[in-house]
């Protein structure tokens, strides 16, 4: 997958970008620009390609920065042509350019990110401005929570995430998340699921550093909450639920320690290779005297390159289990390599997590796919 992703910023995309700029700026030297972008491109991963193209943009677009931005924005064409799927990744170099070369021109950079985030999210580039201009950038993001465009509102949430994956952290917001919460308060009833998911993910980040604060905030948000806000709260608490945090579990109405037993564990296929899918099934039986509300997840302890293991938690089901009842459940684990996880041979383990309490399920070996 990583190999496929990097080709989104391949020769075709670079030549298309050169053509788009030349349409706006006939004097643009597209040949030297393309040559600079292509130099050593085959050896570069996706993000490194984006930075190389950004450097080429700086070398071949007119200065000052504001003039270059005007040309880039004009080259985008009508917003109705905005692309979907993975294709917006081809606009990553535009935002790398803004992040690196606009850092001394705040207003122009904000204008550029406001426009570009509607093509490819500016959640990564905006963090450079939160670092250098914390008060001014925060004020702008707070204002953008009221914007009519869903992409702008989402940027206000996603850009302030203290632990945004694949991005530099924001230590000031990790230490004191109150400014972030002020942003999220404005977005907690946003009508778009795209924004709601970002709000929930931001809250989930906050909970990793301030779990009790997150539970208290979610308790307040649930008062008179519409279904969409209830969804945000449930999604925001997912990491605390997986870790067995009593406050988070209680807030979602599930008991802290279930009365259950696990039986009839089966794996298919019996021999697993890297690249395969493993289907596992089991039966969960109640040993309690009354009905139990159960949140059921499972943790796969994947083997890393150095031979150690690290758990990855997956959601399974929420059920109400009557007394003496038994329920068969099943799920599938993929061992195909992804951009976010590479698989290695070795001894793996599955733990069942019921209301955050771990129940060892099974162990199995994964062999090399070669």
TrEMBL record:
User: What's the domain of life for this entry?
Assistant: Bacteria
Question: Which protein, by its recorded name, is this?
Answer: DNA alkylation repair protein
